[in-house]
Amino acid sequence: MAKYRQGRINDEFQKEVAMILRDVKDPRVSGAFISVTAAEVTPDLKFAKVYYSALMGDKKEVKRGLLSSAGFIRGQIARRMNLRITPEITFVEDGSIEYGAKISKILEGITITDPDEIDGENDD
Hints:
CATH topology: GMP Synthetase, Chain A, domain 3
CATH class: Alpha Beta
CATH architecture: 2-Layer Sandwich
Distance between the termini: 69 Å
Radius of gyration: 21 Å
């Protein structure tokens, strides 16, 4: 039963952080098109890891922008979510979207030939 509750908290935390990031006025964050891919809140609600992926901007600058706006994000979480304790937020870069785009580009470059066409060419 506790795992179900933990999953609901993680999902809700992820959604709220994604919405709050739209309101952050730091140009390093607002101009980077950040998507929140996951969130993990510890069972005691003291710490939270937020996994993100930035589509634009320098990765180091985006990370600095997120770290500087962590207090604002935490305050907004405290107002929006009904939790006993508002967790301290740690941001972790998630490279899965970039990796998926790289794999997709590789797969698009592959040309598939019909085996019957290859056999037909050898018969001539």
